Amino acid sequence: MPLPRLNGTLTPVGAPRYDQLFTDQLVTVMLAVGFDEYGANRPVDGEVEAGLLARGFQADPDAALARLAAGKRPAPQRPADHFLARDITRDAASRPVDMVVSLVRAGDGSAGGDAGSAFLEGLNRCEIAAYAGHGRYGTGPDFDYNFTADLVDEHGTIIASFSEYRDLEQALHDRAHANKRTIFAEYRLLLRQGRLVIRRVNSGNLVVNLRNYHADEFGSHLMVDQLKTDPNVRRMSKQHFDRKYRVWLFNGCRTHDYFLNLRRLNPDANAGGLDLIGTRRVVYWSALGASLLGAIDGIVYHDDYRQLLARLAAVNPDDASDGETGPSHVADLGQRP
User: Rounded to two decimals, what is the model's pTM?
Assistant: First the structure.
């Protein structure tokens, strides 16, 4: 039986509630760039900052914090880079609207827990929050390495070490082929024998759900296994969110996997109105900076949701690598008053 899920729609009706987003002529945005074990996030870090500056934002944290205070918005409580753009758009009464963007970047992953905390804080504090990074097989955003693993011999001597999914997967594939087993059987057997020693690195993980929507992919089993056995992992369902209207955008492979649990497990966030945008197929790091900046442009130009999805699809080309074709993003909109 297939797991329950919300797939979202390619043809959403309506637009963000700009009257609520632009209260006091100010809109606040959290942008976050997650972590990639091969360093693909680092160019995105610079691209997003350069894109903000090119759009007229100032890297002036004091001015940004002062504008938040003047607009009766809560002050950030976690480290981030803050940018301010004055008169970047207009409200329904043609009055100028300023935008404060808080940018969180995982960087080298060494402070993934802090980056995750800053993103969580921004999810609650800001009207709009957007993440770009790995979807981690539908489990949630992530800001650091997932694991390190050692393969040991029968005497406990390390014969190989891994910190990336694909390297471990290839090693297990080769062993499985030699032993005439599936890679999943090889993985489970080595765990039982104590010959595959995995050390969790979950401080940067924000767990939306632990449903394994990708059971045919080895990495999903490793990901879910490690998160399920970690008593300290941060679950989105345990977070407190104020009741207010907000928009959340998740740019990562197949992040519509998040929708069902975000609807079921966060009643406070949903009570004030929560519009969700996620991906329905594989997307690539090379497009993630443009996706975050495209979200900024969509708000500035008052896109409705169909226009915003088209804007995102335009910078996320379709190569059918995962069997899915067509536009990259879908929306699942909260209840309208």
Answer: 0.94
